[in-house]
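To close the chapter, one final illustration. This time we ask the reader to focus less on the individual chains and more on the assembly as a whole: which components sit near each other, and how the overall shape emerges from the parts.
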Amino acid sequence: MVIVMKLGATEQQIEHVVDRLRQVGLREHISEGEERTLIGAIGDERVLQTVPLEALSGVERVIPVLAPYKLASREFQSEDTVIGISGGVNGVEIGGKRVVVMAGPCAVESAEQIITIAGLVKQAGAVILRGGAYKPRTGPYSFQGLGDDGLVLLAAARKQTGLPVITEVMTLEDIDLVGGYTDVFQIGARNMQNFMLLKGVGQTKKPVMLKRGMSATIEEFLLAAEYILSQGNTRVMLCERGIRTFETYTRNTLDINAVPALKALTHLPVIVDPSHGTGRRELVPAVSRAAIAAGADGLLMEVHHDPENSLTGDGAQSLLPDQFSQLMEQLERIAQAVGRSLLPQKEVASAFTGGWSGTLT
Amino acid sequence: MVIVMKLGATEQQIEHVVDRLRQVGLREHISEGEERTLIGAIGDERVLQTVPLEALSGVERVIPVLAPYKLASREFQSEDTVIGISGGVNGVEIGGKRVVVMAGPCAVESAEQIITIAGLVKQAGAVILRGGAYKPRTGPYSFQGLGDDGLVLLAAARKQTGLPVITEVMTLEDIDLVGGYTDVFQIGARNMQNFMLLKGVGQTKKPVMLKRGMSATIEEFLLAAEYILSQGNTRVMLCERGIRTFETYTRNTLDINAVPALKALTHLPVIVDPSHGTGRRELVPAVSRAAIAAGADGLLMEVHHDPENSLTGDGAQSLLPDQFSQLMEQLERIAQAVGRSLLPQKEVASAFTGGWSGTLT
Amino acid sequence: MVIVMKLGATEQQIEHVVDRLRQVGLREHISEGEERTLIGAIGDERVLQTVPLEALSGVERVIPVLAPYKLASREFQSEDTVIGISGGVNGVEIGGKRVVVMAGPCAVESAEQIITIAGLVKQAGAVILRGGAYKPRTGPYSFQGLGDDGLVLLAAARKQTGLPVITEVMTLEDIDLVGGYTDVFQIGARNMQNFMLLKGVGQTKKPVMLKRGMSATIEEFLLAAEYILSQGNTRVMLCERGIRTFETYTRNTLDINAVPALKALTHLPVIVDPSHGTGRRELVPAVSRAAIAAGADGLLMEVHHDPENSLTGDGAQSLLPDQFSQLMEQLERIAQAVGRSLLPQKEVASAFTGGWSGTLT
Amino acid sequence: MVIVMKLGATEQQIEHVVDRLRQVGLREHISEGEERTLIGAIGDERVLQTVPLEALSGVERVIPVLAPYKLASREFQSEDTVIGISGGVNGVEIGGKRVVVMAGPCAVESAEQIITIAGLVKQAGAVILRGGAYKPRTGPYSFQGLGDDGLVLLAAARKQTGLPVITEVMTLEDIDLVGGYTDVFQIGARNMQNFMLLKGVGQTKKPVMLKRGMSATIEEFLLAAEYILSQGNTRVMLCERGIRTFETYTRNTLDINAVPALKALTHLPVIVDPSHGTGRRELVPAVSRAAIAAGADGLLMEVHHDPENSLTGDGAQSLLPDQFSQLMEQLERIAQAVGRSLLPQKEVASAFTGGWSGTLT
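The assembled structure is written out below.
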C-alpha cells in the first residue's frame, strides 16, 4: 500500500497516517518527493481493508500494491487446481490436460427434452450436462424454470446417460435442495456478488462454477471466488461469460483477454461460455475455437434440438445438435494444436506450453 | 413487436412465424418491403416473452415496440406514486412535493456512533436515517457489518430521534428479521437482479428502495421494480446510485439523465445517492444539487462524524456533519428554485413545472 | 512514480531500474516490503513519459503519482481562467460569475434558418450563437453541412444580431479559413485526440472549446487540453457532452460528476452540452438545470424553429424556441440559487460558495 | 424503417409522417396495433438519413431495418475481398487463405533499430513490416515519432528486407507524403471518425487498414469503412484492436466476437491487433492464437529487440524476437487447424469451413 499525501500535507498529518499504520501492526516507509510525500505500508496490507486511509486528512490517494485476494492467487498456490467430479459413471476432471465441454439446454423443459438433448450431447463428446431448473429472468413475466421438478428431471437424465450435471442455485435457502441433485453448483452472473450465497456454497463440499458478473472486473471476480474459498471449499472454477459494454450487436462482449489473464493470476480452472458471451448462434463456433486456443479449460454451451419451441427465448443462441457435433470436431483440432485433447475417446497430445502441473483436489 | 425477416426468407418461413403469433393469440400484419419482409404482431406483445421468435428460421431480428414492464409504467398509472412512511414520529412522504433526505453512516458501527450521527443529521434536516447492518463487501476480509446487532441499534436510534430508518436486506431468509426493525427495505445494487429477494420483499407491505445495478439499463431497472410490484407491493422507490463506466477518477458515473428519464417512464419516486454515485466527498455537494435540479424526489447520503475511524473504508465519500448542514442549506435553495422544498420547517414553494399530481399509497 | 518490483526481483534488476531513473535526472527511494520492493522516483516524473519502465525486467507495475498534465492543472494556476470573447457587439466572458448560454441549430442550413434562430435565441438570453458549417456524420450518406457557405451565413447572422459565433473546425487545413469567420473554435468529440488539429488551434489566438471524446477519461480530456495550451493558446474551455456507456435509452450518458471534478482539477471553464449529452429533447431541461446546479460555467444547446425540416436528423434533440425561452427562465432561477446569474439583463447574485476568483485572459 | 407512433397519436400526425415518406420517394405501410400505430417505410430507407423523422410530432421512435452501410456489406458483395500488396519483393495477399502477420516496432526510432527488427520479424515469418513515423500520443510531452525521417527509414528497411510496409497517416495534409513511402495506409483508432482523413485516403489507390475506434460499435466501424469505399478505394481492411470497457487490468478489451461478426457482415479482410488489444506482452500469445482460431485474416503485432530502450513507452506490450519466433510456430499450428496457413514456406491446408471464395482486387 502506498499512501500519496496531498501537496502541502503537514508533518502532523503524515505522523497521523504513520500512527494508524502502526496501530494495525504495519511499518511505514516515508519517501519525500519534490512535490508529494509518499508513505509505504510494510507488512500484510490486507489488514488495511478496514482502515479508511483515504479519509485521513492530508491523504490524496491510496494505492494498493498487493492483490486483495489470497487463496485464489497463483502466488498462494502455483500448481493448477484440478477438480474431480464424482457424479456420473466416468470420472471427469476439470483443469487438467483434457478440455471439458459442458452442454445442454438453457432450461430443463420436460423429461423428453432433457433426456433427448443429454443423449445427443453425450454422443458428440460432452462430458457434463448443463440445464437450468431455476432461471433468473430479467422480467417477471418470462418462464422462470420448472424449479424442483427440473432438478428431478436432471437427475433422471444423469441416470440415463451417466453424465454428471451442473445447474444453478439462486438462493441460500435452496443450497441443500439443489445440492441433493446436482454434481456442480452454478452461481449465475447476476449472483456473483450475492455474498450470502457465495458463503453458503463455500460451506458445502461440492464443486462450484462461478460465473463472472456482467460488469465485474477480473479483480472483483477473483474476490468473489475468494469468498467461496475462504469458507473451506477449494473446488471452485471460474466462468467467463461476456461482459457488458457499449456494443449492442452482440448480447455481451466475451472478454477473451480474461482467459490468459485469469490463468496467470489464479490456479483455478477457467471455463468459457460462448453462448451467453455472444448471444448469437452463428458466432458460437468461432468464439468456442478462440476460447480453447486462448487456454480455456472448458466450455459451457447451450444446445437444443428444437430451439423454436424452447421456453426460455434463448433459442437464438443455442446450437442445433448437428452444429454442435461438427463444432466438437473442430474444437478437437484446436485442442490438439495447443497440446490438449477434448473428445473423450482421443489421446491427450503431448504438452504444448511445456508443463502442465495440476494437483487433484 | 416487429419481426424482420431475412433477405430471401421464404413464404413458408413467413407463414410459420404467423402461425406462432396466432398460437399465442396475436394477429399479424405483414409488410413486404423492397429488401425485407416485416411482420407486425398485434395484441399484447408481452405474451411473446416466452416464444423464441429469434430462433425461428428465416427471422433476422425481433424488435419490441412496447416496454416489457407494465405496472411500473406511466401509461399504467399517470399520477406520481407517493409513499407514506409510517415509522418515526412525524409522517414522511416520498414522491410528493417535499424532497426527502435520507442520511446516516454507511454502516452501523456502535450505539454511540449511530445515535450521535442520527441526532446530527436530524438537526440538519434529514427525515430518514440510513445505516447498514449487513454490508455487502467486495472482498471477504472486509468488515461485513454488525448484523442483527446493527438492527437493534438502528431501532434504538429511531426511538431516540423519531426518525424512521432504512437498511439493507441481503437475502430472502432475512426479510422477516430485517422487516421487524426497519421502516424501509433497501435492496442493494448488487442484488438488483436477485429475483428471489425481489419477490420476497414484494410479498411484504413495507416500502422498498431498489438501487440500480451497476450495469443495469433503465429498462432492466424498471423490470426489477416490476418483480416487486407484480407480487402486490406497490410502495417501491428507485435509487440511481451511479453506473459503471470506463471512467476511473470517480467510483461510479452518476447517470443524471436517468432522473428525468425515470420520471417520464414511471410513476415511482426517484432517489439519488451521490455518495456512491461519485465515491468522493468533495463531489457530493455539486452532484446533490444537480440531482434535485434534475427532479429527484430524494437523496440518500452518507454522513459520518468520524470518518477516519469508520470501519467500512467508505469514509472517503462520507460528508462531515458540518459539510452536511451547509449542503442542506444549499439544497433548500435549489429545491425552492424548482418549486419544491426540502427542509422540514420550510414552506413548500408554489408549483414550478405546473402540476404535481401524487396519489398517496 | 512508484515502481512495484515483482515478487522475487533480484538485486540486479532493482539496480537496473535505479540506473534508468538516475539517467534521466531523478533520484530513487527504495522501500523493501515483506513481499515486494517498491522504488519511488523523486523529481519531476514527467521526464519518465519516454522511458518504458514497465518493460524493464523485474518490474511488475508502474504507478504514476502526479497528473501527466501541467498547464491545465489547478496546481499550476489556482485562479479560474476567464475567457473574453471579442466578437459580437457586447463583451462576453466565459468562466466568470455569469453563466453563458450558447445556442443555435445543429447545422447551418440556410440564411433564413440561421438568422431566424439567431434572433430567437438572442431574445431568450443566449449570448453566443452556435451552428455547424462542417458536420461530422457517422455515415457518408448523411448531410455533411454547407461547408464554406455555412461560414458566410454564420457571419451574416452575427452581423445581424451582434452575437459572437462558435463553429466546428474539422481539419488542420481549414483552421485559417474557419478562423476568418468564427469567434470560438469548436473541436468536436470525435477529434478530441486529433493531435495535429489540437496543435493547430493551439497556434492561433482564438478561444477554443474542446469537447470531451466519447470514451475519453477526465485525464485524457485534460491531456488533450494540454496539447492546445502547450502551443501557447491559453484560451481553452472544456465541454462535457456525454460519454458512451452500455445505456441505450439515451444517446450518451452525461457525466455530471465530471463538472465538479474538472472544476477541482483545472482552472479552465467547463461547459455542458445537454443536447448531445441526452439526445432527447424532453430530457434537456432537467439536465440543463442540473449542469448549472453542479457548477457549469455555460451550456451549449441546440435550438431549431422547425426541427421537422432540419437536415441533420438531430431534430429530436433540438428545443423549440418556446421551450428554450421557458427553460432560460428556469435556468436563471438555478443560477441565482448557486450565486450566479445567466440572463444578460439580470444582476449577478452575491457569491454562493464564497469566492470566485477569475482572472481575465 | 419502422416508425412507432406515440400512444394516442392523431390521424393528422400519422398522415404527416406518411407525407414525409412520400416526399422522398418511399411508400408507407400502416399497421394499427392495439396500443400503437406502426408505419413501415418501403423503399431504400437510406434516403431517410437526412429526414429527421424522430422530430415529427406524434413519433415515439424510429427503428432502422437495413444496415446504413452498403458497399461494405456482404449483401452487396458476397465473395471475400482479397487485397494484393504490390510493394516488397514477393506478392502478399490479405484476405485469402494465408493468414498474414504484420510485425515491427511501435515506432521507428533509428535506422539500426528498424533494420534490425525488420530482419528478425522477416526471419520468423512476418510478411509486412509495421512501424510508426508519426505517433499519436495521449499527452504532448511524450515522444511523437521521427516524422518524415521515420518514413525514409521505413523505406530503407523495405529495400533491405523486401518486406512491404504499413505506417500511420494522421492528417489529410500528409496523405501524399506518407503515400510516397508506405505500401499500406494505417488509420489509427483515434482517427476512425476523422471523416476528412477517411475521404482523403479513399481518393488514393493504396490499401488502407482502418483501426476500430476505442468506443466504436461494429456498425460505426463499417460506416467508417464505407466513407473510404464511397470515394472509390475498395482496398480496405478492418483492424480490431480492443475496445474500451470498465476493465482496467488490460489496456483494452479485445472484442473477439467482432471477428466472426465482421466476417459475416462484410467482405473486407479482418485483422487483429493483440498488442494494443491487451496491452500486456504476456497475454499476446494466447490472444493471437484466439484471433486466428476465430477466423482473423491477419495479425498486427509489436516486436522490439530492445523494449527497455524503446522511446514510446509501449515496450510492455512488445514481444521480444525470441518470443515472436516461438509464437509464430504456435500460430502456424492454429492456422492449420482451421484449414489455413501462416508461415510463408508452409503449404496452405485444405479448406476447413468448406469454401474460401476470395476475389482479387
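Chain A has two domains: 2-63, 81-360. Chain A touches chain C through 24 residues (CB under 8 Å). With these observations in hand, you are ready for the problems at the end of the chapter.
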